User: What shape does this take?
Amino acid sequence: YDVPTRNALLHFLLTMSLSTEQFQVAGPRHPIVAVLGEDAILPCFLVPAMNAENMELGWFRTTFSQTVFIYWNQWEQTEEQMAEYRGRTSLVRSCLTEGHAAMHLRQVRVSDNGMYTCFFRHGSFYEEADLEVKVAGMGSAPQVHIEGPEEDGVRVVCKASGWFPKPQVQWRDFSGNKFPALSEAHTQDSEQLFSVEATLVVRDSSVGDVTCSVLNPVLDQEKAVAIYIPEPFFPQASPWKPAFAVVLTMLGLLLLGGCYFVTKEHSTKIQVRQEKEDLPRLKEEEQQAKEEALKAIGSVTLDPDSAHYRLSVSHERMRLTWKYPWENLQPHLPTSILFPSEKCSVLGLEGITSGRWYWEVEINNEFFSKWTLGVCRKNSKISGLYMELPERGFWVMGKRDNCYFAGTDPVTWLSPWKDTYRVGVFLDYSEGDVSFYNMINGSHIPSLELSFHTLCLCMESPPTEVSTTSQKDLQLGTKLLTHEPLEYISVPNSNKL
Assistant: This one.
């Protein structure tokens, strides 16, 4: 060869050698967990390690037409990039000279979940590797409420939203024992986030606390909320049912064995007779157990010093009357006395510093459109309870403008709540929780978290008359005076549990 020919051949061989320098591309061995709303790093590296600054690098979805990120001629290229990734990707350049490249993905979305391909090209030679991104997001804490009686138990519902991927729901008792769910339904919203609604029927009236936990299977993290189910919520099982089943069983055995053994027939009749004789005793024991469960350990009385100046507390502190009874109103009295605009309220005398407490408030005035009840921190300033919030030391619910509400910020309107004339209040001081129940259908509103301070029962309404009567179970009655005829509110079963 002449000199020019040899030079050209040498240049060709050198170029071929450089462009066909072989390497492999490797990605992470395990899926990359990316948390919703946060940033993620998608790394790949060369084997053997070599400088990748002058290489073409790319990250794609399932095909090369689905471009996530391109780096070429030492510049980030955006012309072919998918619209959903623009402005959210960049190259981590710190280790390019060592053959390590990574794409920085910002503000992770549900749509980022899935498989990716990272691509390295040098000259005409290229290699690629697959990597998986698992997007995960923790949604809302579960909301648990009692929906009502169900056959021989109580139906409890647990709801949560904003989770990804599909969450897992588990019911447990106080000891950690698991309950099988009656049903579990999942839905996805427009952002592909999951909502779940799980239902449980609790049949053991002594179970006490029931916990609903929602688990993210990717993050292996859960959010859990417990609810206490008071024993009075359970349908009282009649002792006739199990006894009747026993009687039927015995009669069946009697008929079967009577054909062969007269002595067995006689023995079975005696046993059946004994079961029947035991029924009254079983029924009486059941009633005694029920009464014992509802028996008041502590009493709730009214604090005369906390009563509105238009209210008068009786000497036994169990009756509250309005100083201007409806029947004694005189037409010439000022409007401010007839219909005062300020809220009239009263507190319970006993401070609550421990334990579990349960009481019910019964409202029988269909015209009565505004009322509030609940608990408040000791020494809290009362300035219209239905506007007070937990941040100010009040945990209340009530009715205003024919709508029920919970005293949260912002106000939680309980539009699905069916109309009620009896509200149950359950206070668990040790758990820092107060719950309200519609005692007509057993439904429950989301619990309010308490701060650990001395608490007092509080009630607020337009001008009121409150009366109490002492029975086997303490009953606190509130007589309400509105612009309509008078009716009563009562608070039976005021118990420390």
Observations:
- The chain has four helices and 35 strands.
- The chain has four domains: 3-136, 143-233, 243-288, 304-496.
